[in-house]
Amino acid sequence: MHLMRHRALPAIVAEITPREVYEGRREWMRRLAAGALGAGLAAWAARDARAQARVAALSAVRSAVAGAVTVEKPTSRNDATTYNNFYEFGTDKSDPSRHAHTLKTRPWTVAVEGEVKKPRLFDIDALLKLAPMEERIYRLRCVEGWSMVIPWIGWSLAELIRSVEPTANAKFVEFVTLADPAQMPGLRSSVLDWPYTEALRIDEAMHPLALLAFGMYGELLPPQNGAPVRLVVPWKYGFKSAKAIVKIRFVDRQPQTAWVKAAAQEYGFYSNVNPGVDHPRWSQATERRIGEEGGIFAKKRTTLMFNGYEAQVGQLYAGMDLAKHF
Amino acid sequence: MVVVNRFLLHPAAKPVLFALALLPFAQLLHGAIFDGLGPNPAEALLRGTGDWVLRMLCLTLAVTPLREWTGWSALARLRRMLGLFTYFYAVIHFLCYAWLDMGFVPGDIVRDIPKRPFILVGTLALLMMTPLAATSFNRAIRALGAARWKALHRSVYAIALLGLLHYFWMRSAKNDFAEWSVYAAAVALLLGWRVCAALRRDGRAGPTQGQAA
Q: Per the CATH hierarchy, to which homologous superfamily does domain A61-317 belong?
């Protein structure tokens, strides 16, 4: 069923019967045969299998951008796809993988508009072909104090920006994400002012490490991780990397963003990873790496300035008081 | 009413309750050992033990109102055990924080507690629970005298409010108070009942005192 949903994909997307799908089915049947679980639990297992169902392969070449491929051990795909925040599907970190199967990622368009010479409505298939796909292995640091290492697939956001030719007035780029109550049960709750929006300064958006991602772990993004297209800004806290983007707007003033609107004293516009500036209610000096050797007793890691991307992005913020512009 | 009381007075009632109250702990321990707590087991342990402090606290506070509503007077003999399990889960909760979050480094813990108001409030609640746990046995009640013991143990109401504040501040990071409001409603109901009961007693006592004066 999940394979049929992607029938209209371009040639670069190969369809395979993913290993985890048939392994999931085998496991499911094994459990049924063992009679160890009742019908309710069997249904639950099927739901789990669906959350884990692999979508489709997405081929890419290893990125040559400086700093784009960390040598750290990637987080397991299972952890990265079952533990994350995507409030449109609930505020618990297990909610997205349980609820996001309702997200319809085809057909999908992304409107690029505002202060640009060539505004355009991109079909997702056109976006997939706009630039060669690169694999980038980035650290991800959540503002909540945990981190992962994820192999993303996509290309530099700068490619898209150049193609629409921003005007001199384009000082900021705003990302608007899908907000459809029919597909996203989390919208019933008023935790944030929907739709979720995020934004970058134009020079941040033009930085080659700012990634427009379409896949992870060698495959198209699963819905819970922001399919079909999301932002990945590895030197900022995870919430800056908007998921399921439907609109990219170029503007001349710093836009309001979802978390700044919700709590301006706690979440700043920049939200660069910074171990020296604590969240008002917790320290940002350390982080828990998910899947770390040693399990629950693993020592927390020291959080690095700009999440370890200081050499690449530090000059963007030269002369800025980062405690004030947190 | 009689049937329920007979069950509650059965010699097995306390061991059964003991086993039931230990079940969540056993489940978390099993999960911790057999990798059943998801991608962030340390966080799952912290959250899980914290949830059970609040649940046990609500159960403890529910004993007296339930007794009055239902006439199951024998519930009273289970209250101490529920109170002690509240303390048990609170201690485990704190140990999880000190160990898994802070690596048992005293300096880090001391620096972290004032930095995070919600941890300060949680720690305060735990400290306030300690004298209650320490005076829970019969000899302590006799030594203190019933009136003083009762006055001391009224601090459980303040502890409940601190526990709620702790959870509220923790949740405010997520901007999601759905779960919190369930606990808040339970505590409001249980404390509200006591306020009403006290007002009723005052209402009855008022005229009598007037006559005596």
A: Oxidoreductase, molybdopterin-binding domain (3.90.420.10)
